[in-house]
Amino acid sequence: MLNRFSDVPDDLIGRANELTLLAGSLGGGRLVTLTGVGGVGKSRLALHAADQVRRFDGRAVAWADLWQLRDDRLLLPLVADALGFADHTYGEPVDSLAGWLSGQDQLLVLDSCEHLTSSCRALVTRLRSSCPRLTVLATSREPLGISGEQVVGTEPLPVDTDAVELLSRRAAALGVPLTRPEDRVAAARLCRWLDGIPLALEMAAGQLAGATLGEIEHHVRSRLDLTAAAYGPAAPSHQRALRTTIGWSHELCEPSERLLWARLSVFRGPFDAEAALHVCEDDALPATAVRACLDALERKSVLTRHGDRHRMLDTVREYGHLWLGELGEEPEARSRHARYFRARVRKADEEWQSAAQTHWYRWIEDSHADLCAALDHLTSTGSAAALDMSGRLGFFWSCGGHLREAAAYLEDCLARCPAPAEVRVRALWALGVTRVLCGDGAAARELAERCSWEADRCADADGSLRAAYLLALIHLLDGRPMAAGHAVDLALGRATGSTDVTAATVLCRLARVFALTGQGFLGRARAGALELRADCAERGEWWGRSYADYQLSLIALFEDRSTDAVAHARSMVEGKHRIGDTFGMALGLDLLAAALAAQGTGEPAAAAYALGEVLWSAVGHPQRGTPELGPVRAQCERTTRALLGTERYEAVLARSAVRDPETVLGEIMGPSWPAA
User: Which InterPro entries does the record associate with it (predicted)?
Assistant: First the structure.
C-alpha cells in the first residue's frame, strides 16, 4: 500500500490556526471530524496533522483512503489493511479487529467518509467501545454524528493572502511566475471569484500555460454568473466556484483530454501509464494521445502523481464519471478495465515460478482497489472469468493478508458463476487455502475433498496436486506428518514429470519436506529442501525458496548447527518480506529468534522474538506453525532469558514491541538490510 507519509508535501499554505486547533483536539478527544466542502483541502490538512502526531507525539498512525470505495462492503477490510491487521481468524471480522486493536495507542485517519457516513459511524462506534487508546480523525463533508465527536471546520483560504500565495506558487511551478504588481492584483481578484477553494485555484493555475490571468478571470466570472442563474442565489458560493472551475477546466481541455478524463474515472485507485493505455486506448484515443493527455491532465491539476502512479481526486473523478455516462461508454469502459486486470492476474499466476514473482506480489497489493472493482464487474455479469480471476488471485491475496476478501469473492463466484471444471477446481483449492490459514480445518478438509474429487473427474493433474497439498497442509497443522507425506507422495507419484518445478509440484514437494521433518527423517528432509531451494533460487522465485530455508533452518537447529540455522532463518524472513507475507515473516522470526538464542546472541534473539509476537498479533492467528515448532519456541524463550537475565530480557521485549517494526527488523537482519 502507498505510504501516505513518505512524501508529505511541505508546502501547506496557511492553515496554521487549523493545525493548532487540530493538534489540541487530537490530544484531548477520541473522535475528531474535519469537515468542509469538496476541494477545500481537508485531506491535505489531515495529512499534515497526522504527520505531526506521528513525528512529534510518537504515536502509531494509520491512513485509510475511503474515496476508492464504491460502497461499504470493503470498508472493514480496507481499514484493517491500513492498520496492518492481516486477519487470519474465522470469527466476526470487526470483533477480531477490535480485539487486536484494544490495547494499542493509535491514530486512525478515515479520509473521505461522506459517501459512507452511516457505515463509518457504526464502525467507529464499535472500535471506540473496545479500544480506549484509539483516536479517529475523519475527513468528511458532514459530521459523522457520534456522541463526543469534535468537529473542526475547514474554511477556504483567505482570498487576499494565502489563496494568492497558493496560486502564485502553482503558477511559478508551471514556469509562469506572477512577478508584476498587476499580476498580483489580478490574482487576488481571481482568488475572490473562486472563493479561496484550493482545488479550484490549482485547476485555474493549470490553465496558465495557455491563457493569461485576465482571460482566466473573464472565463471564471462569466461562468459563475451562468451557474448562479441556473442554481439560484441559494446555491452555496463555494460549491458554485468549484463546480464552475472543474466544468471550465473540462471545457478548456482538448477533446482527447476530455475523453481520457472520462475513461480514467473507472479506476478506483492510483494507476500507472500502462493501465491507462490498456483501459483507455482505442481508435478514437490512440496510444500516443493517451500518453500526451496524461501529461496534459497532470499539468492542468486534473491528475496528481505519486511516483509512477496517477490519481484523480474524487471530486474530479465524479465529474469525469458523469461525462462517461453522457458518452454512453461506461459499460464498455468497465469491461475494458476488468479485462485488463484479469489479464494481468493471469500473467502474475503464470509467472509465479519466476524472478517476476516479487514484482507481481507488489503489483497486486498496489492494485488492490482496482482488482476488487474488476471482480465486482465480472461477478455482476455471472462470467466464468470472475471465477477464473478469483481462483488465480486467491493465493496471492492469502499470502498478502487479504484472506477475508479472497474468501468472500471465491464463495460468491463459486455460487454465481458457472465455469469449466478446471476453473472450479482451482477456485475450490484457493478457498480451501483461505480456510486453513484462518484456522478452520473442518471447512478446509471438506474443500480439499471436493477439489480432489472434481480434479479426478476431469483428469486435472495440476488440480490433483493442489488438492493433495491442501490436504497435506491440514494434516501438518493437525500434527499428522505421516498422513501429510502419504497424501503428497501419492499425488506426486501419479503426476507425469513430477520433478518439474511448477507451482503445484513446488507446493507438494515442500509439503513432503515438512512431513519428513515432522517424522524425524532429517537427512531426507534436508536433501529434499536443498534440492527444492536450488530449483527455486535458479528461477529467482522466493515463496518456495523461503519455506525451503525455513525447513533447513529448523533441521539445522535440531542438529545443533546454529550458524546454518541463523543464515537460513534470515533468508526465510527476507523472502517473506519481499512478497509482503506477514504470516510467513512471523514464522521466520520465531525460528530466527531460536537460532540466535542457540548461538548465544541474547538481545537480537529477544528482539526477534518480540517482533514475531507483534506480527503474530497482527494476523490474529490461533495456529502458530506446525506442532514441532512449539518446543523450539519454548526453548528459545528459556535460553534467551538465561542469557540476559529476566529483567533485561523483559526490557528488550518491551522496547522491541513498541518500536517501528521495520527499524527493529533492520537491526536484527544486519547492515546489508534491506536486500536488493
Answer: P-loop_NTPase
